Records
---
Amino acid sequence: MDASIILFGPPGAGKGTQAVKISEITGKPQISTGDMLRKSVSEKTDLGIEAQSYMESGLLVPDELIIQLIAERIKQKDASRGVLFDGFPRTLKQAEALSLIVNISSVISIEVPDEEIVGRIVGRRMDPQTGEIYHIDFKPPPTEIEYRLVQRKDDNEETVRNRLAAYHQQTSPLSSWYSEKGLLFTVDGNRTIDEVGKDIENFLIQK
Ligand code: AMP
């Protein structure tokens, strides 16, 4: 398996949005543990049933389940050229497990202050037909599709506060762990989608 990239940052930093572009540039498929878990929840698999209550309260799903999920996913053929991890790893235990099975070439960290995040997440909507993500103020959807947009169950203010707490306690320490390994590239995510995307693109081209 070729080297992989990690997309790192708090919930609502724009990881999913930027991941689409990074995948296009690098040819590495996006692996979002959040998306995989949501699929398991909707399909009511054993994993989904176990993960659901953690996700709905904004807590992290236990490491064992996540590590198992990733170990299976990277066995698939499309992972042979390396992958783009989005929302994984989120704990030191996950990062250590990952380092044993995958070679990481860089960690792109999108930084956004807490006070920005709640507004970003609470206004977020998804078009279930295309998977496109909108924001009621910052990226308004076309009026003709407004009726079909959905909001993630965990995109409410109370749960976002728990997700942010989990990020600060369990996930953000990973940035210094990767920085010490010389892998961390930090981007100011408190700008437009295009500006953030340009910085990431320049980094990937120089690499
Ligand atoms: P996300 O879509 O990345 O915001 O993830 C949504 C929710 O799924 C999180 O709040 C966690 O409950 C769970 N989740 C996603 N990825 C992970 C992970 N790597 N480790 C633990 N829980 C995760």
---
Amino acid sequence: MKEKTEMLVKECSDYLNQCNDLNDLNRIKIKYLGKNGLITALLKNLRDLPSEQRPFAGKTVNDAREKIQTLLDEKEGELKKSESGILLEKEWIDVTLPGKNTTRGSLHPITKIIDEIISVFSGLGFEYKEGPEIETDYYCFQALNIPKDHPARDMQDTFYINENIVLRSHTSPVQVRNMEISKPPIRIVNPGRVYRADDDATHSPMFHQIEGLCIDEHISLGDLKGVLEEFAKNIFSKDTKIRFRPSYFPFTEPSVEVDVSCSICKGKGCKICKGTGWIEILGAGIVNPAVLEQSNIDSKKYSGFAFGCGIERIAMIKYGIDDMRILFDNDLRFLRQYK
Ligand code: PHE
């Protein structure tokens, strides 16, 4: 028995010398000490020995089992140590290296200007509204006092989808849609895309407008001027002045073109303002009573003002851009300047 156990211990120790991972070690453990292992078999066989031999044989096998267990434990310790060493080596990182850069987008200058304008008007109590870009002829023109075949339709080079459906050429139809569903007082601003068959350095077939409408009792041109002054001072600079020039729109009466003092030359006259000291920024006026009546608003009791302006134009003035198309080219070198 003694030789046999010594041989097993030796054999196991030889195996362990060659073993270099924990899986192998486990296999060796099972081979000797597992349920059907070689040492376990010897222990089971003790029963068959004559009783006087049993104590000695039992001690011999148990000693061998303990030796093997010790060898296994030692090896396990060794392997674990070196495996965690390998792991540390493999997963080593230099925490002082600079991090990986992820590119971050930013808002388009047009979106930024829309947001700025909205925030000025919401401070003045105006609500944000939107409307469809594909519009009916009725909302885009007829309800705004521009009947079919009226010469004023020439002011806007409209894309007709069919006789009654158009790509909206201005944001004014949103006014009408809101007058139809709400009662005065009404105060709304509505930005959005509009479309006109026009394409050069200062015109694009798709551009953005923002329109404002205010209807209440006793609304006058004075209210319009006060509100637009506030808008111009916030969007351009605190010392910006505005002026009204008489104009014509079928949906407002009287109508005005609104100029702001040139923020580049402070009114002295420069290339941007073509030497006049003033830059035209929007159209506006007192809502034509015919338009109010058409949307079932009592024009004897209520009056209102409306204005509409091109956002690209505001962006060009504000940022000194001389070609509108650059706003739609999506050239990152241009866009990054407005981060
Ligand atoms: N809707 C007009 C346009 O696009 C602008 C405007 C709006 C003028 C409201 C007056 C009042 O030309």
